[in-house]
Each structure stands twice: as structure tokens, then as C-alpha cells.
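Q: Second attempt. The first request was missing the SMILES, so the protein and pyridoxal-5'-phosphate are both included now.
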Amino acid sequence: MVADGELTSGSAIGEFEDALAEFLAVPHAVATSSGTDALIIALRAVGVSHGDEVIMPANSFAATENAVWACGATPVLVDIDPVRHTLDPALVETAITPRTRAILPVHLYGRFADVPGLAEIARRHGLGLVEDACQAIGVTGVGQHSDAAALSFNPYKNFGLTGKAGAVVTRDAEVGVSARRFAYHGFDPERKNVKEDAFGLNAKIDNSTAAVALGLLPRLTLNSYRRAFLAKRYLDALEELAADGTAVLPAFTPDHAWHLFGVQVAAGREARDAIQARMRTADAVETDIYYPVLTHRQQTPLHRKHFAHVALPLTEQVHARVLHLPLHNNLSLSEQDRVIEALHAAFRATAH
Ligand SMILES: Cc1ncc(COP(=O)(O)O)c(C=O)c1O
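A: Got both inputs this time. The predicted holo structure:
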């Protein structure tokens, strides 16, 4: 590949796109240089542009809202449902205005949002539906009920590569064609350097990265099983915390990619922060909070202008209580046991 000079363009891209489409049972895949680019491209491909509104949740990696801003559109933030903790279809419907162009659910932490429910609303109101599936590759249903789904393959994701990468997958041939053009300068894929669309990014996956992706794709299912196994192990080991009401644990459901494992500390933010601090200082166990600042609480002038009066009670409650434990493909059982012991000890220490 290096000798042939095929580092950016080359045959691995098409081969990987075919393999990905086959793996996900979605007919069209366009591999991109990141999940962020995949989101921008997917939103543009369903028609989102300047002055539009896009309905989305407030807890996500900043790429979700950044993709909306990048299209010249404005995020409209809606609360989550009490079961999945993803975009609540009933509340989405109440947030639709004449400017709404699309709905953008996020499969946060890997839990599949209610895309069929959202699809029904999108259809009734003539809206686009794009999934932020950057944390959810491997979950049945991704790309099956929407106009397009955006995936991320950055090294921290379930299907992590050697650099930044992502993809748009879609059932809609026209969305697929637009996505391919938007991913490469608006060019007609059949005619070199001839534009067919005014808009376009330099956001095709590199051929070298696609070759790595082709090599790693066969391992994805095994890694997904391993994550589910580790999640179940956490759930079993933490059962008593859930039983006595001190913690709320995620449900073990098949529609979950277990990208992140979050425990909710029932006593609230102060107790959660104390548990996190105690795990770090007493047992050298690092935990995290995804994401530290909700979209409507970011303090840029733009955020203050748009979201100063936004209140999302359930999003805020879950966000104040959640603590993420280590979970990755290479987590060993002894490492996981150390985390479990440290968490139990921290709960005991902060109970008094
Ligand atoms: C929910 C979500 N959306 C979008 C992205 C952006 O993906 P990438 O880092 O590949 O641009 C990520 C990951 O970083 C993510 O977790």
C-alpha cells in the first residue's frame, strides 16, 4: 500500500464499506474520516441547513451539537425517557416547530434509543431522522429505522481503529449518494474533480485506515460479547447496592453495546463526587463522568443565548448521579474485581 502510494484513496475503502454494510445489514455505507464528519454529512444528506432546528438530547459528546451548528442549524434540546435515558419521543413531538428539520437521537453509552418511536413521529411530521450511533456499533437496529446513522471508529470506541474514522450507513440510496459526495468536496464519484454539489468536506476515510478496519471487523462480535460479559459481571457484583437502593444500575438488555458502564449514586451529586474521590485516593481506581457539562450548561456566549432558560429535569438528575466505571475490550477480570472492591469500599465509606 505504501509502495503503491495508496494511502488516502484505494481499493480498501470500497471493500470495507461493503463489509460494514453487510455486517450491519444496511445497504449503503460511506466510510468517513471521523464520527463527527459522519454526523455533519448525514445531517446535510437529509437536508439540514442554515436556519433549521434539530431536536437532540443534552447529554452527549460535543460532536453531536457541533455537527448541528456546522450545518448552520440550531440544536433544540429535549429531555430523556425514564427507562432508556435517551431522547423521549413524546417530548420530541411537543418540541417540533415549523423550523424543525430533523431529529437526532444519541444511543448514549451504547443503549439504543427508541428509534422506531421517533421514526413514527418523523414520518408524520415530514422530518429527517439521523442516529448518532457513534457509541452503538453492534446493536441490532442501528440504521434500520432511520434515514441515516453515524458511526465512530476512533480508538476509544467499541470498534476502535488506529486513528480517527467513522461512517454513515443508510437504507436510502439517495442519502447514500449525497453522503458520498459530501464526504469528498461535493465531487461526482465518477468524474475526477468535477463538483455535483456546492457543499463538500475532505472527510473520506483514508485507504490505510480502511485496510486496518477490514482486518479488525471480524473481531467486533467477539469484543461486543466481551463487553456484555463484563457489564453482566459488574451488574452481578453490584446487585446488593441496587437492592438496598443506594445505587441504580443499568438494565441488562440486548439493545446495548456497553460502550460505557454507568452507576447512578442515588444520594446525588455530592455523594457521587465523594465516591469518585475516595476510589481515586484510597484505591487508585480512576472513574469518569460522561459528559462533565451538559450542552445547555456550557458557558459560551452562543450556549447562554440559546439555552439559558432550558430545564431538562431527568437529564439533569441522571447526570448529577452517574459515575462511569472502567469498561473496555482489554479489561482483565482482576482489574475489574479491583474496581468492584473499590466501589463497594467507597459506598461504605461515604454512607456515614
Ligand atoms: C456520542 C458521540 N457522538 C459523536 C462522536 C464523534 O466521533 P469522532 O470522535 O469519531 O469524531 C463521539 C465520539 O467521540 C461520540 O461518543
